[in-house]
């Protein structure tokens, strides 16, 4: 009686398990990046770094006259603990761009840097230094350039970008790429523009990214990878369900073999 019951149950369960397995499979069209990309693609967007409020920057000034530039290069001591005690390392003073886009720089006072590109900001500081220094050379760097990658990636987190330039594919590489369950056709990039949060979507399955203003990320951008439908369905199922179905399948298979 029991064997007959299991034999009748075998086929429906086999169909159910096979259906569940096939429904969780993804096709090539759902996974492969840049499917319609040509061998050569010309980037239509040029990268321009723009300074924003809350950026921490360093400004180094150099010239032939070292005594003339000394008042403009302020140093602070960075302390760190070692096995032999506490050591200090001098580093350039950082300047916080305030909510109005200004910094206070030694001698020359308030400098409106917010909203300017690196080239524009460098020219502005250089012009203000001319009354004090002959042929000054100015170098501006951001010390807190960072982006965040969240969601269905293998290593989500916040990443510091020392060279102040990162593309979306590079950011995903820092997060060790998307998981299989990540939805590649709807990548969300959260960016603050003029005090407002904007939400922007990118499709990694096509080459549209290479002509998008979001190919290059900006400081403090957040990239979010949403789960695909398979991942969402999986989250609704009890995690022990797959183990139970596998066990039942094995048991029925054994019973079917024994009754042959």
Q: Which key features would you list for this structure?
A:
single chain; 260 residues; alpha+beta; Outer membrane lipoprotein wza fold like; wza like fold; 3 domains; 3-stranded antiparallel β-sheet; 7 helices; 29% helix; elongated
Written account of the structure:
- The structure is a single chain.
- The mean pLDDT is 84.
- The relative contact order is 0.17.
- This protein has seven helices and 14 strands.
- The chain has 260 residues and is α+β, with helices and mostly antiparallel strands.
- Helix 1 crosses helix 7.
- The protein has three domains: 47 residues; 102 residues, Roll (Outer membrane lipoprotein wza fold like), CATH 3.10.560; 87 residues, wza like fold, CATH 3.30.1950.10.
- The two termini are 15 Å apart.
- A five-stranded mixed β-sheet has the order 9-8-14-11-12, covered by helices on one side. The protein has a three-stranded antiparallel β-sheet with strand order 4-1-7, covered by helices on one side. A two-stranded antiparallel ribbon has the order 2-3.
Briefly characterize the structure.
The protein is an alpha+beta fold.
Question: Could you outline the blueprint of secondary structure elements for this entry?
Answer:
Elements (H helix, E strand, L loop, with lengths): L1 H22 L4 H4 L24 E7 L3 H4 L5 E8 L2 E8 L1 E3 L5 E4 L3 E4 L5 H12 L7 E6 L3 E6 L5 E4 L5 E2 H7 L12 E7 L2 E7 L13 E2 L4 E4 L3 H8 L4 H18 L2
Question: What is the CATH C-level name of the largest domain?
Answer: Alpha Beta
Give me the CATH fold name of the largest domain. Answer: Outer membrane lipoprotein wza fold like
Structural class: alpha+beta
- Largest sheet report: 5 strands, mixed
**Average of per-residue pLDDT values:** 84
As laid out across the biggest beta sheet, the strand order is 9-8-14-11-12
Number of alpha- plus pi-helical segments: 7
Low-confidence segments, ≥5 residues, pLDDT <50?
Answer: none
- N-to-C CA distance: 15 Å
State which percent range the strand residues make up.
25-35%
In helices, the fraction of residues equals 25-40%
Helix-strand sequence: HHEHEEEEEHEEEEHEEEEHH
The tally of structural domains comes to 3
| CATH architecture heading of the largest domain | Roll
* Full CATH superfamily name of the largest domain: Outer membrane lipoprotein wza domain like
Any idea what the shape is? elongated
User: Tally of extended strands?
Assistant: 14
Cα radius of gyration in angstroms: 29 Å
């Amino acid at each position: 009686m029991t064997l007959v019951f299991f034999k009748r149950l075998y086929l429906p369960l086999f169909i159910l398990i096979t259906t569940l397995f096939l429904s969780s499979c993804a096709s090539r069209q759902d996974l492969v990046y840049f499917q319609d990309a040509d061998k050569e693609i010309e980037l239509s967007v040029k990268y321009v770094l723009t300074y924003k409020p809350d950026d921490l920057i360093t400004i180094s000034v150099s010239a032939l006259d070292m005594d003339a530039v000394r008042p403009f290069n302020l140093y602070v001591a960075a302390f760190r603990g070692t096995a032999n005690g506490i050591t200090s390392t001098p580093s350039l003073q950082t300047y916080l761009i305030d909510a109005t886009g200004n910094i206070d720089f030694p001698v020359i006072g308030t400098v409106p840097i917010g909203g300017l590109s690196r080239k524009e900001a460098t020219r502005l500081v250089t012009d203000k230094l001319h009354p004090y220094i002959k042929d000054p050379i100015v170098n501006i760097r951001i010390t807190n350039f960072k982006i965040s990658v969240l969601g269905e990636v293998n290593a989500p987190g916040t990443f510091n970008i020392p060279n102040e330039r990162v593309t979306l594919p590079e950011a995903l590489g820092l997060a060790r790429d998307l998981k299989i369950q990540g939805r590649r056709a709807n990548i969300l990039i959260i960016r603050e523009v003029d005090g407002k949060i904007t939400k922007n979507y990118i499709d990694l399955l096509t080459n549209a990214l290479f002509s998008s203003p979001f190919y290059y990320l900006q400081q403090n951008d957040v990239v979010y990878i949403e789960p695909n439908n398979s991942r969402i369905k999986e989250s609704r199922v009890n995690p022990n369900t797959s183990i139970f179905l596998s066990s039942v399948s094995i048991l029925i298979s054994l019973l079917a073999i024994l009754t042959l």
